Amino acid sequence: MAIDTVLLAVGPMDTVRAEGLAETVLEIAEPLEADVVIGHAFTEDEYEDFREGLGFDERVENVDPTEVAKRRPPVGDLEEIFEEAGVEYEVRGALGEVSSKVVDMAIDVDADRMVLGGRRRSPAEKAVLGSVSQEIILQAPCPVTYFRDLDVME
Question: Which SUPFAM superfamilies does the annotation name (predicted)?
Fold first, then answer.
């Protein structure tokens, strides 16, 4: 199975592990000359919380999720790393229920591999709060590499 497209699914908590995520993606994408899609999905509530800080006057109904994603951390840092490495990439944003939007994005870009960061949670926290990463892994249309930064306790 050839790997032509790698989806790197990120969220605001991934800012602290952006470099590690990028290195993981580059280990796959560079030798195979695969394209990278930096995907950032967010909920309507998240968008409303930061839209003014990003300079967007539009309400959530009128937003282009990709334009918002391009301005949300850690996307800028990742773009810089991929540019320096000479890897082709694009940014995609999605607005809605995060796990289903990331899975939809993987389908839309025909991802051959996905890289996803996550945080450490106890089984009780997962049971009560759910796990976006776990939902994505279970529903993904392609193999997923799960990156957990052991130095970051969240």
Answer: Adenine nucleotide alpha hydrolases-like
Dihedral angle over CA of 61, 66, 67, 71, nearest 10 = 120
Judged against a pLDDT cut of 90, whether residue 131 lies above it is answered with no
Count the neighbouring beta carbons within 10 Å of the beta carbon of residue 120. Answer: 11
Q: Is the confidence at residue 139, as pLDDT, over 80?
A: yes
Q: What is the DSSP letter of 17?
A: G
The structure tokens 């199975």 sit at: 1
* Domains annotated on the chain, with CATH: 5-148 (3.40.50.620)
pLDDT at 134: 85
- Average pLDDT of the residues in 45-73: 76
Assess whether the previous peptide bond of 65 is cis (omega < 30° from 0).
Answer: no
**CB of 68 within 8 A of CB of 54?**
yes
Helix (H, G, I), strand (E, B) or coil at 111: coil
